[in-house]
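Good morning C.,

I know you're traveling, so I'll keep this short. The sequence:
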Amino acid sequence: MKRLSFVIPAVIIAGAVALSSMFIVDERENALVLQFGQVKQVRTEPGLYFRIPFIQEVVRYDSRILGLQSQPLEVTPADDRRLVVDAFLRWRIDDVQRFRQAVGAVGISAAQGRIEQILNAAIREVLGSVPSNAVLSEDRTGLMNQIRDIARREARSLGVDVIDVRLTRTDLPEQNLAATYARMRAEREREAADEIARGNEAAQRVRAQADRTVTELVSSARRDGDIVRGEADAQRNRIYAEAFGRDPEFFAFSRSLMSYERALTGANSSMVLSPDSDFFRYLNAIDPGGMPAAMTVTDPTTPSAAPADN
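The tokens, ready to paste straight into the viewer:
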């Protein structure tokens, strides 16, 4: 019995020691076996492994892709316009032993700080060599690839592989926004003034062309009117000449009647003429009995027209 009482604890202790010597590496992690701070084993494949209990320790690191969101960084592009930039970086541990030597026991948190410094330096180097318009444009993939390549090269010393870099924000500083908006507003106002000036110039050309067209049309209409009136006058004169040639006496009589009508038009018109005047030649012919030697001719519409004494 005494012997059995010693065996059971020994078996338990041996089992505990055996269990403590075993460790499992998951597919999502890498492991280092350290002995007095020195790396003795590097385990990057998933499986069951062994270590020396109480002497060696196992340190695990995440083998998955990790993300890093940088703090806003103020950069000065080639045209001296300051910009506020922040970026998102994806990385993973590529060499776990080198990573341990570079960051020490602090691990991931220390690596994040070192990688952010590398990223900020790469952003300043790339964006400082191009104008701000290239940074603010939508097509800036080339700039992000340059930043990624520089960060990847510098991060190899940490045992880290930089997979991708994306610029998440590129804005103007708050103190520059008002001046930028004022400059944009002035530029738009200048463009509007240019458009208004071009519109006024075009309107003046249209009005001048319209005035010229009106003048040409009026001149053409007047010319055509003068031609028509001239032709009408010529036709009238021809008709008068033909009428005079057919019956000169009747033509003279008709013209005399028109003269009587025109001369006696008006409410208070009067004439003093000799009865044997040529003006009354056709009236004397109509009235063979004769008239007084001198008379006052008044408007026939006046009811009390009295002859004048000799």
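Safe travels,
E.
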